[in-house]
Amino acid sequence: MSKSPMIVAFGEMLIDFVPDVAGVSLADSYAFIKAPGGAPANVACAIAKLGGSAAFIGKVGDDEFGHMLANLLKKNGVNSDGICFDKDARTALAFVTLKTDGQREFMFYRNPSADMLLKESELKLDLIKQAKIFHYGSISLISEPCKSAHLAAMKAAKQAGVLLSYDPNVRLPLWPSPDAARDGIKSIWNQADFVKVSDDEVEFLTKGDPQKDDVVMSLWNDNFKLLIVTDGPNGCRYYTKKFKGKVKGFQVKTVDTTGAGDSFVGSFLLAVANDPNIFDDEKKLQEALLFSNACGAISTTQKGAIPALPDKAQAEKLIKEGK
């Protein structure tokens, strides 16, 4: 079988410290489990786990955690040629509190962390130009020099005819203010070919009811091939120039929602890379989104993002059981 087209994920990779018991505040947590994370890195691992071809571009500290993360990507089959190590800054850390329903809150240690210090001159542009899809979030837009590197990477991808995929992944504690987050996230909004947002993010970006179509459509741009809104356990909604609809989700026993969106995105990007006509074929799109919903659901059934990522057989099994 020929290797599937490459997907490059750009941005942050960090360590999440997740409490061993859910429903306890950070102050009251007794022990923490070390879980590798960072949305773009999770997406790259999700793609590789499903048998796709993925690369990651970003920066970590030249420290134990940074090398652990780089090795973990390699172990998961992700191309790590685009990773840089910073001698002076540490790998970012996040302490995550898990509520009893698996939802979470974050406390970040990055002042500044290595991922924020990626420079344009450190970008592996040849890697980006070879990609079928270039995927990114918004955390890399928060501070310089990483912001300039992010914009340069997008520009290089666009000029090379690479599809641009954007999942803003709103993390309010990292931005100076909610308005700064809205402005920063929307500053590159119209350049993407497809965007995935959660229902909560729709509410944050529009200040409207995320269940209403007209509210969602206020985020639409004619450059888009597709806009996806994820609704947690209720599945997702899709909007293209020609059609719109929804695809059901899966009910599972949720332990930790960290990485569910990344698992969904990785699965969907792989479908797009393998069949770019998916945007014009509603049946194919629905099938790919159902599979992505299954991947997202499975990833919530154990702690940590990367260890919980499913393979193809697990997702197919859940879909079969759901019928």
TrEMBL record:
SUPFAM superfamilies: Ribokinase-like. It comes from the Eukaryota. It comes from Hibiscus sabdariffa. Gene3D superfamilies: 3.40.1190.20. Belongs to the carbohydrate kinase PfkB family. The keyword Kinase applies. This is Carbohydrate kinase PfkB domain-containing protein. Keywords: Kinase, Transferase. InterPro entries: Carboh/pur_kinase_PfkB_CS (IPR002173), PfkB_Carbo_kinase (IPR050306), PfkB_dom (IPR011611), Ribokinase-like (IPR029056). Residues 6-311 form the Carbohydrate kinase PfkB domain. Transmembrane segments: none annotated. Pfam families: PfkB.
